[in-house]
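Fold it.
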Amino acid sequence: MIQLHSFCFGLFQENTYVLWDETKEAIIIDPGNSSSSEHTQLKKFIEAKELNLKRLILTHAHIDHISGNRFVFDTWKLLPEVHKNDLGYIQKHKDVAMMYNLPCEESPLPEVFLKEGEKLKFGNSEMEMIFTPGHSPGSLTFYSKEQKFMIAGDVLFYGSIGRTDLPGGDHQTLIDSIEQKLFPLGDDVKVYSGHGQATTIGFEKMNNPFLV
């Protein structure tokens, strides 16, 4: 069974997730850690749980979700894995950090690209990869059918949706991704987002002002 722990990191209050199962094999999704104290917090948690971190996975590659890529690579020798449509954000990471006047440890580049229909595997566990563009052109959602939860990045939030005014964003594409790809998974599916509290598909169907 997959276990999950979240951290809230950085200026953008981004949610970083560590997932693992009974084998102690683990993955990190969207490392937003950007300071020495946050690096230490992440490392101490993984060590305390005696986890074997195997993969660095990205829902998408906006700056707040990749700030910890360099630390993860330096510490565990893991390269980021992302949809190919978001590669450009990683390549321009340093320029974007300068624009926001943020400290930047340049991200290593991916060698493995994720695709819809593939399985995200670690230990005895697997999750589906669902292509959900709109917030970014390469956004992916990772879904556990067995445990009825998803890691949705910045596609869907509690009472809101991802912004689409950044380069590569498109409002109607995002709405289509949510309504055509995520809503059919079921009202009882829990949604872990890239920012803010968790929600459910059913709650967002009934209450999200962007979707009702």
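The radius of gyration is 16 Å.
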